[in-house]
Design a protein that fits this description.
single chain; 289 residues; alpha/beta; Protocatechuate 4,5-dioxygenase, Chain B; 8-stranded mixed β-sheet; 10 helices; 33% helix
Length: 289
């Protein structure tokens, strides 16, 4: 049967993609950030999954204010990089895994989570920046990402957004769905977005290093307690866009210890400020099963 081998957590700052695409990774401002992902790229090579289930939020490219699904799963065979106003990122298209995606949709919907099934959508920096950080730069014409990816969109842009508790429970449902798929696939689940940042208003540029790292500590050691953090705490402490962190709880909820298994191993943890006007957080947890 399929099983989840690890969870990966990372910010998906659009400026990171710009730095990559313009060859700025070794500039003094950016070099410390990209150095923090070098161990992750090696880990990814050493622990290549068969499929990545990647949780992210669309930034008004696939979904406008006309239609805003709370949770949407990409079931297509492939997904093109989105044009976010300055042309698509020069990265390969994303190859999906329609069979596993359809199975997860069937299972999770039967567990009473309402998913929107999407058979065509462009994928923006929320998905492609984490792939670049973890997998390295790829030639858009001749290269390819190392494995299929199932995009999973969460609305954290337009209120109301799902609670951390709901996202944590959804991760548990996704784990059960993966484990009921009748192929011996190694699956990684990634949660992306955050950490503390605010893009507008009087607090634009807010970064809360202490809160971010305390939240990471709790995500590792007490994920259920972390899932109980109310929305107002994210807004107050991590800024209006800090709410993206609820997507990390989907990935954390899918880990074995949440279902009574052994605690995961922390393989890498990294935190850096600033990247543009955002705090960057990163974590890799391996299941011990």
């Amino acid at each position: 049967m399929a099983h989840i081998t690890a969870s990966v957590y990372t910010s998906h700052v659009p400026a990171i993609g710009v730095a990559l695409d313009l060859g700025k990774t070794q500039e003094p401002y950016w070099q410390p950030l990209f150095a923090g992902y070098e161990p992750s790229k090696q880990w990814m090579k050493d622990n290549k999954p068969d499929v990545v289930f990647l949780v992210y939020n669309d930034h008004a490219t696939a979904f406008s204010l006309e239609v805003i699904p709370t949770f949407a799963i990409g079931c297509a065979a492939e997904f093109e990089p989105a044009d976010e106003g300055w042309g698509p990122r020069p990265v390969p298209k994303v190859i999906g895994h329609p069979e596993l995606a359809a199975h997860i949709a069937q299972s999770v919907i039967q567990q009473d989570f309402d998913l929107t099934i999407v058979n065509k959508m462009p994928v923006d920096h929320g998905l492609t920046v984490p792939l670049s950080l973890m997998c390295g730069e790829q030639d858009p014409k001749t290269g390819a990402w190392p494995c299929p990816v199932i995009p999973f969109h969460v609305n954290v842009v337009q209120y109301p957004v799902p609670s951390g508790r709901r996202c944590f429970a959804l991760g548990q449902a996704i784990r059960r769905a993966v484990e009921s798929f009748d192929e011996p696939l190694k699956v990684q689940i990634w949660g992306t977005g955050g950490m503390s940042h605010q893009l507008q208003g009087a607090r634009a540029g807010l970064i809360n290093r202490a809160w971010d790292n305390a939240w990471l500590d709790q995500l590792i050691a007490d994920p259920k307690g972390c899932s109980e953090v109310p929305h107002i705490d994210y807004v107050r402490e991590a800024g209006s866009e800090g709410i993206e962190l609820v997507m990390w709880l989907i990935a954390r909820g899918a880990m074995a210890d949440v279902a009574g298994g052994p605690a995961p191993t922390v393989k890498h943890r990294f935190y850096h400020v600033p990247a543009s006007n955002t705090a960057v957080g990163h974590l890799i947890l391996e299941n011990n099963i």
